[in-house]
């Protein structure tokens, strides 16, 4: 193994460690904030917000979960009154949408978590934040040989890399977006 391979392996390991820390902090921050929804619930609501008309099978594919796991989560969210199937939709696997209560809980979670991210980026320049956002989006898109749905920010011919971060990439469902609906 030459020095370049070793450096790449060391950098890849550092990325993994940092992603684990970010995930753990996110879960801890959500607990401390005493949010009404678990991180799993928040991610499901976020997927529904970002993918209008999605079905449970879409959520299962995106998060690489068993459909029965997603069904149980959705049953709980439906029982809480935060998610519902779109009325009058025909066919198997009806489209999902948030209820007013779902929007309120989603907005609460996004506000808290956005505050955490904003504080963490305090002192960064706009250019640094823009680059970090583009790099995370590129990382999150995945590889072309993956067998999963394309990321919503990925263009049909390749990764999203042209628009300025934040142009239309902010978590949807925020008060600004909700007022437009």
Write a short abstract of this structure.
By secondary structure, the protein is mainly alpha-helical. Helix content is 59%, strand content 3%. It has seven helices and two strands.
Features:
mainly alpha; single chain; two-stranded antiparallel sheet; 181 residues; globular; disordered C terminus
Would you mind describing this structure in some detail?
The protein is mainly alpha-helical and 181 residues long. 59% of the residues lie in helices and 3% in strands. It is built from seven helices and two strands. Helix 3 packs across helix 4. It is globular and about 60 Å long.
- The helix count comes to 7
Helical/strand content category: mainly alpha
* Terminal CA distance: 55 Å
- Could you spell the SSE succession in H and E letters? HHHHEEHHH
Number of strands: 2
Strand content: under 5%
What's the shape? Answer: globular
Radius of gyration: 18 Å
How would you state the average pLDDT, rounded? 79
Largest sheet: 2 strands, antiparallel
Portion in helices: 55-70%
Which regions have little confidence, pLDDT < 50, spanning 5+ residues?
A: 149-169, 174-181
Strand arrangement within the widest β-sheet reads 1-2
